[in-house]
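Hi support team,

I'm filing this because I wasn't sure whether my run with N-carbamoyl-L-aspartate finished correctly. The job status page said complete, but I'd like someone to confirm that the output block is well-formed before I use it downstream. Pasting the exact inputs I used:
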Amino acid sequence: MTSSILTLNGLSRNHIERIFTLARQLKKSPLKPDFAGQFAALLFFEPSTRTRLSFEAACHRAGIGPMVFQAGQGTSMEKGETLEDSVANVVAMNPSILVVRAGDELKMESLGSKLSIPVINAGWGKKGHPTQALLDLLTISERRPLDGVKVVFLGDLLYSRVAASHLEVWPQFNGEVRFCGPKELVPPHQPGEPVVQTFSNVDEAIEWADVIVALRYQTERHGVNSADPKKSAAALADIRANYALTAERLKKIPSSTLILHPGPVNHGVEIDSEVYFDSRSVILDQVSHGVWLREALLRLLLKGDLT
Ligand code: NCD
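And here is everything the job wrote out:
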Protein backbone atom coordinates (compact mmCIF):
# COMPACT_ATOMS: atom_id res chain seq x y z
CA MET A 1 0.00 0.00 0.00
CA THR A 2 1.31 3.47 -0.87
CA SER A 3 -0.02 6.08 1.48
CA SER A 4 3.17 8.05 2.07
CA ILE A 5 5.91 9.09 -0.33
CA LEU A 6 9.16 8.99 1.65
CA THR A 7 11.33 7.36 -1.02
CA LEU A 8 10.73 6.20 -4.58
CA ASN A 9 11.72 2.62 -3.80
CA GLY A 10 8.19 1.46 -3.07
CA LEU A 11 6.56 3.29 -5.96
CA SER A 12 5.77 1.05 -8.93
CA ARG A 13 5.95 2.16 -12.54
CA ASN A 14 2.18 1.84 -12.63
CA HIS A 15 1.84 4.29 -9.72
CA ILE A 16 4.27 6.70 -11.38
CA GLU A 17 2.38 6.53 -14.69
CA ARG A 18 -0.86 7.31 -12.82
CA ILE A 19 0.68 10.38 -11.22
CA PHE A 20 2.07 11.52 -14.60
CA THR A 21 -1.23 10.94 -16.41
CA LEU A 22 -3.10 13.12 -13.93
CA ALA A 23 -0.34 15.76 -13.93
CA ARG A 24 -0.52 15.97 -17.75
CA GLN A 25 -4.31 16.34 -17.55
CA LEU A 26 -3.95 19.11 -14.98
CA LYS A 27 -1.42 20.83 -17.24
CA LYS A 28 -3.92 20.79 -20.14
CA SER A 29 -6.96 21.91 -18.19
CA PRO A 30 -7.39 22.53 -14.48
CA LEU A 31 -9.74 20.29 -12.54
CA LYS A 32 -12.32 21.76 -10.19
CA PRO A 33 -11.04 22.41 -6.66
CA ASP A 34 -12.00 19.54 -4.37
CA PHE A 35 -11.41 18.54 -0.74
CA ALA A 36 -13.58 21.18 0.94
CA GLY A 37 -12.58 21.76 4.55
CA GLN A 38 -9.36 19.77 4.28
CA PHE A 39 -5.91 21.21 4.70
CA ALA A 40 -2.31 20.18 4.14
CA ALA A 41 0.42 20.98 6.65
CA LEU A 42 3.56 22.04 4.79
CA LEU A 43 6.41 21.81 7.29
CA PHE A 44 9.70 23.22 6.12
CA PHE A 45 12.60 22.88 8.55
CA GLU A 46 15.11 23.76 5.81
CA PRO A 47 15.00 26.67 3.33
CA SER A 48 12.97 26.27 0.16
CA THR A 49 11.56 28.36 -2.68
CA ARG A 50 10.43 26.10 -5.53
CA THR A 51 9.34 23.09 -3.50
CA ARG A 52 7.41 25.03 -0.86
CA LEU A 53 5.72 27.46 -3.23
CA SER A 54 4.82 24.74 -5.73
CA PHE A 55 3.21 22.68 -2.97
CA GLU A 56 1.32 25.81 -1.92
CA ALA A 57 0.23 26.50 -5.51
CA ALA A 58 -0.75 22.84 -5.92
CA CYS A 59 -2.87 23.00 -2.76
CA HIS A 60 -4.67 26.14 -3.98
CA ARG A 61 -5.36 24.56 -7.38
CA ALA A 62 -6.72 21.38 -5.78
CA GLY A 63 -8.81 23.21 -3.19
CA ILE A 64 -6.80 21.98 -0.20
CA GLY A 65 -5.96 24.68 2.33
CA PRO A 66 -2.19 25.05 2.71
CA MET A 67 -0.98 25.56 6.29
CA VAL A 68 2.66 26.57 5.99
CA PHE A 69 5.26 26.28 8.71
CA GLN A 70 8.66 27.69 7.74
CA ALA A 71 10.97 27.01 10.65
CA GLY A 72 12.83 29.95 12.09
CA GLN A 73 10.45 32.63 10.83
CA GLY A 74 8.41 33.69 13.81
CA THR A 75 7.73 30.13 14.98
CA SER A 76 8.24 28.83 18.51
CA MET A 77 11.40 27.09 17.35
CA GLU A 78 12.92 30.52 18.01
CA LYS A 79 11.96 29.91 21.65
CA GLY A 80 13.62 26.50 21.64
CA GLU A 81 10.68 24.26 20.71
CA THR A 82 12.03 21.06 19.17
CA LEU A 83 11.38 19.82 15.68
CA GLU A 84 9.54 16.76 17.06
CA ASP A 85 7.28 18.91 19.26
CA SER A 86 6.60 21.28 16.38
CA VAL A 87 5.52 18.36 14.19
CA ALA A 88 3.39 16.82 16.97
CA ASN A 89 1.58 20.11 17.57
CA VAL A 90 0.81 20.64 13.92
CA VAL A 91 -0.43 17.03 13.63
CA ALA A 92 -2.72 17.70 16.62
CA MET A 93 -4.54 20.24 14.43
CA ASN A 94 -5.70 17.35 12.19
CA PRO A 95 -4.33 18.13 8.75
CA SER A 96 -5.28 15.64 6.01
CA ILE A 97 -1.70 15.29 4.77
CA LEU A 98 1.82 16.28 5.86
CA VAL A 99 4.48 17.59 3.51
CA VAL A 100 7.84 17.70 5.29
CA ARG A 101 11.29 19.04 4.50
CA ALA A 102 13.89 18.35 7.14
CA GLY A 103 17.45 17.18 7.76
CA ASP A 104 18.57 13.54 8.02
CA GLU A 105 17.98 13.68 11.77
CA LEU A 106 14.18 13.60 11.41
CA LYS A 107 12.83 10.07 11.68
CA MET A 108 10.47 10.51 8.76
CA GLU A 109 9.89 6.77 8.38
CA SER A 110 8.54 6.45 11.93
CA LEU A 111 6.42 9.56 11.36
CA GLY A 112 5.02 7.93 8.22
CA SER A 113 4.23 4.66 9.99
CA LYS A 114 2.82 6.24 13.19
CA LEU A 115 0.38 8.62 11.51
CA SER A 116 -2.82 7.66 9.77
CA ILE A 117 -2.42 10.44 7.20
CA PRO A 118 -0.07 10.41 4.19
CA VAL A 119 3.38 12.01 4.59
CA ILE A 120 5.28 13.40 1.59
CA ASN A 121 9.04 13.85 1.76
CA ALA A 122 9.74 17.33 0.34
CA GLY A 123 13.53 16.97 0.70
CA TRP A 124 15.03 14.90 3.51
CA GLY A 125 18.67 15.61 4.34
CA LYS A 126 20.73 13.79 1.76
CA LYS A 127 18.40 10.78 1.73
CA GLY A 128 16.06 11.82 -1.05
CA HIS A 129 13.76 14.30 -2.73
CA PRO A 130 11.17 12.09 -4.45
CA THR A 131 8.85 14.78 -5.82
CA GLN A 132 11.82 16.57 -7.44
CA ALA A 133 12.88 13.36 -9.21
CA LEU A 134 9.29 12.73 -10.32
CA LEU A 135 8.87 16.24 -11.72
CA ASP A 136 12.22 15.86 -13.49
CA LEU A 137 11.00 12.68 -15.17
CA LEU A 138 7.68 14.29 -16.05
CA THR A 139 9.59 17.19 -17.65
CA ILE A 140 11.85 14.82 -19.60
CA SER A 141 8.84 12.77 -20.73
CA GLU A 142 7.41 15.86 -22.46
CA ARG A 143 10.47 15.91 -24.72
CA ARG A 144 11.35 12.21 -25.20
CA PRO A 145 10.31 8.71 -24.10
CA LEU A 146 11.69 7.81 -20.68
CA ASP A 147 12.75 4.25 -21.48
CA GLY A 148 16.51 3.74 -21.48
CA VAL A 149 17.42 7.38 -20.82
CA LYS A 150 21.04 8.03 -19.78
CA VAL A 151 21.32 10.69 -17.06
CA VAL A 152 24.52 12.26 -15.76
CA PHE A 153 24.71 14.42 -12.62
CA LEU A 154 27.52 17.00 -12.57
CA GLY A 155 29.34 18.72 -9.71
CA ASP A 156 28.58 18.45 -5.99
CA LEU A 157 27.07 14.98 -5.65
CA LEU A 158 27.94 14.35 -2.01
CA TYR A 159 24.72 15.59 -0.43
CA SER A 160 22.48 15.53 -3.48
CA ARG A 161 19.14 14.11 -2.39
CA VAL A 162 17.91 14.81 -5.91
CA ALA A 163 20.51 12.43 -7.36
CA ALA A 164 19.65 9.90 -4.62
CA SER A 165 15.99 9.86 -5.69
CA HIS A 166 16.92 9.60 -9.38
CA LEU A 167 18.99 6.51 -8.55
CA GLU A 168 15.86 4.99 -7.00
CA VAL A 169 13.47 5.72 -9.85
CA TRP A 170 15.34 5.22 -13.13
CA PRO A 171 15.55 1.39 -12.92
CA GLN A 172 11.74 1.40 -13.40
CA PHE A 173 12.34 2.93 -16.84
CA ASN A 174 15.52 0.98 -17.67
CA GLY A 175 17.39 4.26 -17.44
CA GLU A 176 20.92 4.71 -16.13
CA VAL A 177 22.33 7.35 -13.79
CA ARG A 178 26.04 8.19 -13.70
CA PHE A 179 28.03 10.79 -11.78
CA CYS A 180 30.73 13.25 -12.80
CA GLY A 181 32.27 15.42 -10.10
CA PRO A 182 35.37 16.00 -7.96
CA LYS A 183 36.43 12.73 -6.25
CA GLU A 184 35.82 14.15 -2.79
CA LEU A 185 32.27 15.17 -3.77
CA VAL A 186 31.21 11.72 -5.04
CA PRO A 187 29.24 9.85 -2.35
CA PRO A 188 30.99 6.72 -1.04
CA HIS A 189 29.49 3.43 -2.21
CA GLN A 190 26.92 2.07 0.27
CA PRO A 191 27.00 -1.68 0.90
CA GLY A 192 24.04 -3.37 -0.77
CA GLU A 193 23.47 -0.51 -3.20
CA PRO A 194 24.35 -0.72 -6.90
CA VAL A 195 27.67 0.88 -7.86
CA VAL A 196 27.21 4.20 -9.66
CA GLN A 197 29.54 4.58 -12.66
CA THR A 198 31.48 7.83 -12.72
CA PHE A 199 33.16 9.92 -15.38
CA SER A 200 36.30 11.84 -14.53
CA ASN A 201 36.05 13.88 -17.70
CA VAL A 202 33.06 16.12 -18.25
CA ASP A 203 33.35 16.00 -22.04
CA GLU A 204 32.95 12.19 -21.97
CA ALA A 205 29.97 12.58 -19.65
CA ILE A 206 28.35 15.10 -21.98
CA GLU A 207 28.89 12.84 -24.97
CA TRP A 208 27.33 9.83 -23.19
CA ALA A 209 24.28 11.50 -21.66
CA ASP A 210 20.77 12.12 -22.97
CA VAL A 211 20.05 14.24 -19.89
CA ILE A 212 22.56 16.38 -17.99
CA VAL A 213 21.70 17.57 -14.49
CA ALA A 214 23.88 20.35 -13.08
CA LEU A 215 24.05 20.65 -9.29
CA ARG A 216 24.76 23.52 -6.92
CA TYR A 217 27.74 23.32 -4.54
CA GLN A 218 25.92 22.93 -1.20
CA THR A 219 28.05 25.30 0.87
CA GLU A 220 25.71 25.07 3.86
CA ARG A 221 26.04 21.28 4.10
CA HIS A 222 29.82 21.27 3.77
CA GLY A 223 29.88 23.66 6.71
CA VAL A 224 32.70 25.50 5.00
CA ASN A 225 31.42 29.03 5.50
CA SER A 226 32.69 29.19 9.02
CA ALA A 227 35.07 26.24 9.11
CA ASP A 228 37.26 26.60 6.07
CA PRO A 229 36.53 29.30 3.49
CA LYS A 230 39.62 28.34 1.50
CA LYS A 231 38.30 24.80 1.04
CA SER A 232 35.02 26.22 -0.25
CA ALA A 233 36.82 28.51 -2.71
CA ALA A 234 38.96 25.62 -3.96
CA ALA A 235 35.93 23.34 -4.40
CA LEU A 236 34.04 26.03 -6.30
CA ALA A 237 37.05 26.71 -8.53
CA ASP A 238 37.36 22.98 -9.27
CA ILE A 239 33.67 22.70 -10.14
CA ARG A 240 33.89 25.78 -12.33
CA ALA A 241 37.01 24.60 -14.18
CA ASN A 242 36.20 20.91 -14.60
CA TYR A 243 32.49 20.16 -14.13
CA ALA A 244 30.50 23.30 -15.00
CA LEU A 245 28.15 23.78 -17.93
CA THR A 246 29.90 26.76 -19.45
CA ALA A 247 29.00 28.66 -22.61
CA GLU A 248 32.10 27.06 -24.16
CA ARG A 249 31.00 23.49 -23.26
CA LEU A 250 27.49 24.17 -24.53
CA LYS A 251 28.89 23.99 -28.07
CA LYS A 252 29.72 20.30 -27.50
CA ILE A 253 26.27 19.38 -26.20
CA PRO A 254 24.14 17.62 -28.85
CA SER A 255 20.92 19.38 -29.86
CA SER A 256 18.77 16.52 -28.53
CA THR A 257 20.35 16.52 -25.04
CA LEU A 258 18.30 18.00 -22.22
CA ILE A 259 19.80 20.19 -19.51
CA LEU A 260 18.25 20.19 -16.03
CA HIS A 261 19.03 21.82 -12.69
CA PRO A 262 16.92 21.43 -9.54
CA GLY A 263 17.72 25.00 -8.46
CA PRO A 264 18.76 27.20 -6.82
CA VAL A 265 21.28 28.05 -9.53
CA ASN A 266 24.61 29.78 -9.05
CA HIS A 267 24.96 31.57 -12.37
CA GLY A 268 28.55 31.57 -13.56
CA VAL A 269 29.55 28.76 -11.21
CA GLU A 270 28.07 25.34 -12.07
CA ILE A 271 26.11 26.76 -15.03
CA ASP A 272 26.38 29.84 -17.25
CA SER A 273 23.38 32.00 -18.06
CA GLU A 274 23.85 31.14 -21.78
CA VAL A 275 23.23 27.50 -20.85
CA TYR A 276 20.38 28.29 -18.45
CA PHE A 277 18.51 30.13 -21.21
CA ASP A 278 19.47 27.77 -24.07
CA SER A 279 16.72 25.83 -25.88
CA ARG A 280 18.15 22.55 -24.54
CA SER A 281 17.59 23.76 -20.97
CA VAL A 282 14.28 22.78 -19.36
CA ILE A 283 15.11 24.31 -15.99
CA LEU A 284 12.06 26.57 -15.77
CA ASP A 285 9.86 23.81 -17.26
CA GLN A 286 10.92 21.70 -14.28
CA VAL A 287 9.52 24.40 -12.00
CA SER A 288 6.20 24.56 -13.88
CA HIS A 289 5.89 20.78 -13.87
CA GLY A 290 6.53 20.82 -10.13
CA VAL A 291 3.11 22.38 -9.54
CA TRP A 292 1.15 19.90 -11.72
CA LEU A 293 3.10 16.92 -10.42
CA ARG A 294 2.54 17.90 -6.79
CA GLU A 295 -1.12 18.70 -7.38
CA ALA A 296 -1.59 15.27 -8.98
CA LEU A 297 0.18 13.59 -6.08
CA LEU A 298 -1.87 15.44 -3.45
CA ARG A 299 -5.14 14.63 -5.22
CA LEU A 300 -4.29 10.93 -5.63
CA LEU A 301 -3.02 10.47 -2.09
CA LEU A 302 -5.99 12.27 -0.52
CA LYS A 303 -8.44 10.18 -2.53
CA GLY A 304 -6.59 7.00 -1.56
CA ASP A 305 -5.96 6.31 -5.27
CA LEU A 306 -2.30 5.37 -4.97
CA THR A 307 -2.72 2.19 -2.98
C1 NCD B 1 17.40 21.18 -4.10
C2 NCD B 1 17.17 20.68 -2.70
O1 NCD B 1 16.79 21.42 -1.80
O2 NCD B 1 17.38 19.49 -2.56
N1 NCD B 1 16.52 22.07 -4.64
C3 NCD B 1 15.16 21.82 -4.76
O3 NCD B 1 14.50 21.34 -3.89
N2 NCD B 1 14.57 22.16 -5.93
C4 NCD B 1 18.83 21.28 -4.45
C5 NCD B 1 19.74 22.27 -3.75
O4 NCD B 1 19.48 22.71 -2.64
O5 NCD B 1 20.78 22.60 -4.34
